[in-house]
Amino acid sequence: MKITSNKNALIVELPGRNFNVLIDEEILGSQYMAFGTADIPEGSGLPWNQHEGTEEIIYVLKGSGSAESRTERQAIQPGTVLYMEPHSEHRILNEGKGEMKLLCSFSPPIKIRPTK
Asked: Regarding the domain with residue range 12-107, which homologous superfamily does it belong to in the CATH classification?
């Protein structure tokens, strides 16, 4: 068993949000998944993105807004769970008051690191 916490997260500034990497191969040796949280400021959002060959699950902890694919748009709020199939384009928009916080899991893992 390995244990970590938010105070040990690798904070990566990405367009529209900060991503807090909690678990991946480099941090805890996970070979099959990556896990972390995303903090999206009020009025911001994730740009269109997709993950080649990787599934993503997002759980909304705090805030409200919308999740979009190229074919639909759905309102999201605390307790909403999203499943993104590999290669599916999507984005998340914080349209509510205050910060939005998401839990995010990727399998197989993606490497989230600062761009150089």
From this structure: Jelly Rolls (2.60.120.10)
